[in-house]
Amino acid sequence: MYSLERNIPRCRIYWLDGKKFKTNLFVLLFDLPLRRETATKTALLAEVLREGCKPYPDARTLAVAAEEMYGALWDISIVKKGDRQLLLFSLEAAKAVDVEDAMGFLKAISSEPLIENEAFPQEVVTRRKEILARRLAALKDDKREYARRRCLEEVGKDTPLEISADGYAEDLDQIDGKELYNHYRQIIESGTVKVFFCGDEREKRKLTLFRKIFDGGEPLSNMRDAEILPKHEPVFVKEQANMEQARLVLAFDTKAEWGKRSYATMLVLNQLFGGDPDSLLFQNLRERDGLCYDIKSYTYPLTGLLFVQTGIKVQDAKKSAVGILKALEELGENAVEPKKLQQAKTALLRQCNTIADQPWSMVDFSVEQVLMEGERGLDPFMHRIENVTAEEVCRMANRSKLRTIYLLSGQEVAKNEAK
């Protein structure tokens, strides 16, 4: 990854070598602090901006413009990374498309909105409120994802981690076209901008056009302190939903820090703990004890949080939680066999190697590095993984603290259990 502008205070441009791909990928993002009072406005803003812009004032003209760029794919979306809410404008186009034409499209959808009397058209805002409300309601349908989100909210209580980047349905009624446009202006005039271009090197200098669009603003801040979770005893949260199978999620704080050796150690620990079918949790709880339908551990981006989620019968919740804790204790007491350690690292390195095979994966990885002002490029990241030792894995397992146990159970089963 190469930064074109090292001294520009607000808009930074990054080039990723995409000469082997058939398409160019452009991602323009606003890096915003995740706050309860603005999260829904930003999520709704992404919806409203999809409706059109001055050069392309409706869905039809937007579709025609994309089709004229050989069927280019574009989107405006919201992504949560750690304690940040990212407003993304993306365009993936064939290399036959002139880079300046692609940038013109990206410029239009990001900085030339449709407005009436210093406000977004109210009929557009109303329509997109309804769409966002339906999307937020649908988040509860995927119980696995819902349990993951709820556990993150509980473990991140009183920090930005608990805030949903997708917004809140109860906030929508309070937002009108004028208020939303004022929020947009604040973002467009002072928000931190990052532009990623995955394409040919000879085209990268053209991206400096975005300097002129997003000039001024506050200087970029230095590396942020790692998110510190409030200290408290582990909490147990139980909720009910219309479902047959229960979902159990345990959250651990490993204290790992992005860009440090500890982060690579956490990734290796996760792989050994429950990251694949050869992991301790899968072999013990699912294969040996038959306690769960599925089980997997995973890390949360840009934090030291490690989660385990499993699908179980609600009556097996306590046994499953105890089994998960015992598995982590086992990793802390016994040094991992050299063969298993190497297998875990090899699997992780294989995943890392696939990043360079897909433009979106390259950009996503680079975004995380830039957000944390961490090491540049994939090679240093992989080098840290290669050097993780069995002793480091043991120490991290021992220092990982249980923070939250979240149980989502079926209503009917829960009633029967209570009788």
Structural notes for this entry:
It is built from 15 helices and 11 strands. With 419 residues, it is an alpha+beta fold. The chain has 2 domains: 2-213, Metalloenzyme, LuxS/M16 peptidase-like (Cytochrome Bc1 Complex, Chain A, domain 1); 235-418, Cytochrome Bc1 Complex, Chain A, domain 1, CATH 3.30.830. The strands form 2 sheets. The protein has a 6-stranded mixed β-sheet, sandwiched between helices. Strand 4 and strand 5 (84-94) form a beta hairpin. Helix 8 (261-275) crosses helix 11 (338-355) and helix 11 runs antiparallel to helix 13. The longest helix has 18 residues, at 338-355. It is globular, with a radius of gyration of 23 Å.
- How many helical elements? 15
Given helix and strand content, the structural type is alpha+beta
- When the domains are counted, the total is 2
Q: Which CATH architecture of the largest domain is right?
A: 2-Layer Sandwich
Strand content: 15-25%
Average pLDDT, rounded to a whole number, is 91
pLDDT < 50 runs, ≥5 residues? 219-226, 412-419
- Could you describe the largest sheet, including whether it forms a barrel? 6 strands, mixed
Rg over CA atoms: 23 Å
Give me the count of strands. 11
CATH first level of the largest domain: Alpha Beta
The strand line-up of the biggest sheet is: 1-2-6-3-5-4
> Which range best describes the helical content: under 10%, 10-25%, 25-40%, 40-55%, 55-70% or over 70%?
40-55%
CATH topology of the largest domain, what is it called? Answer: Cytochrome Bc1 Complex, Chain A, domain 1
Element pattern in H and E: EEEHHEEHHHHEHEEHHEEHHHHHEH
CATH superfamily of the largest domain: Metalloenzyme, LuxS/M16 peptidase-like
- How many angstroms separate the termini? 61 Å
Name the shape in a single word: globular
